[in-house]
Every structure is written in C-alpha cells, then in structure tokens.
C-alpha cells in the first residue's frame, strides 16, 4: 500500500490555479469596493473587510506558493509558509464569522449604544486580537514544524493541532448558529413591533420605517447566508480532522486510500473563500454598486449623489 498521499500534480496544479485566480480577483475587488465606499457604515466596513482580507490573502497564497514550479518536501520553507498560513487563515476566518454574528446581535440588542461604545477603531483592535489568537493557536501546536514525506495538509504536522482546529471549526459554528437563531427571532419581533406602531397618516415616517425594516431583514438574511456557507465549507473539514486524528492510526495511508474524500472536503473548505465575495456582491447593494462603478470605470455612485 502506498503510504504517501501525494495527489496527481497536474490536476492539483490546474485546480489550485483556477481557485487561486478566482479567490484573489473576486475578494480583492470586493475588498477595494467596500474600503472606498462612502456610504457603507464604518463598523460594518471594518468587519466585512477583515473577512475579505483573509480570503484575499488565501488566494494570494495559492497563486504565490502553490503554483510555483518547484517540488519541495515538508521541511522546505515554502511548505512551512503554505501550511502555517493556511491554518492561521482557518482560525482567522472562523473567528471573523463569529465576530460578524456577534456584531449583528449587538446591533439589534443595543442599537442606541452600539455606535457610541463600539466604534470602528475599537473593532480594529478586536480584529487584531483575533489574528493574534489565530497565530498563537497555530504556532503553539505546530512548534516543531511539519515532519512527513510530502507537503500536504493533515498528513504532516502535529495531529493534535489538526484535532484542535477541527473542534474549533465545529464548536464555533454551533455557537454562530445559536446566535443567528436568536438574531432571526429578535429581528422578526422588532419588525412586527415597529409595523404595529406605524403612523397611519404620516407617509414620510411610514416609508422610512418600512425601508429600515427591509434593510434590517436584508442584513439578517445576508449574515444567515454567510453563516450557512461557513458551516457547509468548514464543518466537513472539521469532522474530517477530528475523525482522522482520533480514530486513524496511519493518517498518511488513510488520506492516500481515500484521496477522493480528502479532495472533496478540501475543495468545500476552500470554496468558502470563493463564495463570500459573491454573497457580498449580490446581497449588499452598496458593495454591488461600488463594484459595478469600478468595473465600468465610471465615477462612484455616492460621489454623483453628493454633487447632484
């Protein structure tokens, strides 16, 4: 039995090339659109930008490291850079999704105090703290680097570190789902309460209230889609890491004999970074408009509104 888990290099090269180009271009374009938007709320701009930045860096990592025409083993610098950054991005992404969901809970529970007490600068500090935790978790379990026959995720490195990453993905996702259920219930209750107190003979107030209800509902649905995509992408890999770490004695042989399962799981894992910018484009009107203006090389819509 072949104890290594090295997949077909041509297939892997083509797959990494397509995913890398799409990830980097879509996320970079979405990130630039959100950062340059003048109408996007600053706190939400920081939150979504942090997630898009992680996905952009992952796309850049695929293009700059995985597509190099160099064959290297697990002790090579490029292998260590690839695996270390991949695990760091895993933690950063899952924790960023948790932060986005937490911000949504606070925005509907403390709408009057949130903007005053939690500014975009404080949110930057929280995001920096998340990245620090991601780096600490990664290097604390992979202090000795990656020992093994080939440079491949799961096959080389401390198996305990992969188990912790798997449990982190699943547990954080469960927490996010519970939080989102609460968000959906509170949003629905708020919409009903506001609708019940609408002024019958004041069309201006009624129109503003209806618009705010739709905006809250749309944001809640967008967060729900992001949560669902995160679960579909990260939970299979989390279960795979937990199972291979706890119930498999020879992980290298297990991955080699079940290469299709590993490839599908890894593809779902990476698809999260590809789907996120698409969700922003189609769900966030401000982000979509910014991107259209950028692609067509025309003045930004918010600038036109300001001078008209």
TrEMBL record:
Cited PROSITE patterns: G_PROTEIN_RECEP_F1_2
Alphabetized UniProt keyword annotations: Cell membrane, Membrane, Transmembrane, Transmembrane helix
Subcellular location: Cell membrane
Domain G-protein coupled receptors family 1 profile residues, every copy: 26-280
Gene3D superfamilies with a match to the protein in the record: Rhodopsin 7-helix transmembrane proteins (1.20.1070.10)
UniProt xrefs under CDD domains: 7tm_classA_rhodopsin-like
Example of a GO cellular component annotation carried by this entry: plasma membrane
Alphabetized SUPFAM superfamilies for the sequence: Family A G protein-coupled receptor-like
Transmembrane regions listed in the UniProt entry: 13-34, 46-63, 83-102, 123-144, 159-183, 217-241, 261-282
Alphabetical list of InterPro entries matching this protein: GPCR_Rhodpsn, GPCR_Rhodpsn_7TM
A Pfam family hit: 7tm_1
GO molecular function: G protein-coupled receptor activity
Membrane topology: Multi-pass membrane protein
UniProt keyword annotation of Ion transport present: no
Protein name: G-protein coupled receptors family 1 profile domain-containing protein
Protein source organism: Patella caerulea
């Amino acid at each position: 039995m072949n104890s290594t888990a090295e997949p077909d290099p041509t297939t892997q090269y083509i797959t990494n090339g397509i995913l890398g180009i799409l990830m980097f271009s879509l996320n970079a374009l979405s990130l630039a659109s959100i950062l340059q938007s003048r109408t996007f709320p600053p706190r939400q701009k920081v939150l979504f930008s942090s997630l898009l930045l992680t996905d952009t860096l992952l796309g850049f990592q695929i293009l700059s490291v995985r597509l190099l025409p160099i064959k290297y083993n697990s002790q090579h610098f490029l292998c260590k850079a690839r695996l270390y950054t991949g695990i760091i991005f895993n933690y950063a992404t899952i924790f960023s999704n948790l932060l986005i969901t937490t911000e949504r809970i606070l925005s509907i529970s403390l709408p009057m105090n949130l903007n005053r007490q939690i500014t975009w600068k404080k949110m930057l500090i929280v995001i920096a703290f998340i990245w620090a935790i991601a780096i600490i978790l990664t290097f604390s379990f992979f202090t000795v680097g990656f020992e093994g026959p080939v440079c491949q995720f799961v096959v080389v490195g401390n198996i305990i570190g992969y188990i912790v990453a798997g449990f982190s993905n699943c547990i954080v996702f469960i927490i996010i789902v519970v939080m989102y259920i609460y968000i959906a219930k509170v949003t629905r209750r708020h919409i009903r309460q506001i609708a019940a107190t609408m002024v019958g003979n004041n069309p201006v107030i009624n129109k503003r209230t209806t618009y705010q209800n739709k905006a809250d509902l749309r944001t809640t649905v967008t967060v729900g889609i992001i949560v669902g995509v995160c679960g579909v992408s990260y939970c299979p890999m989390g279960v795979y890491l937990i199972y291979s770490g706890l119930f498999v004695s020879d992980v290298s042989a297990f991955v080699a004999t079940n290469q299709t399962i590993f490839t599908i799981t890894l593809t779902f894992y990476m698809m999260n970074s590809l789907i996120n910018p698409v969700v922003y484009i189609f769900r966030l009107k401000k982000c979509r408009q910014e991107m259209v203006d950028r692609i067509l090389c025309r003045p930004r819509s918010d600038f036109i509104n300001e001078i008209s």
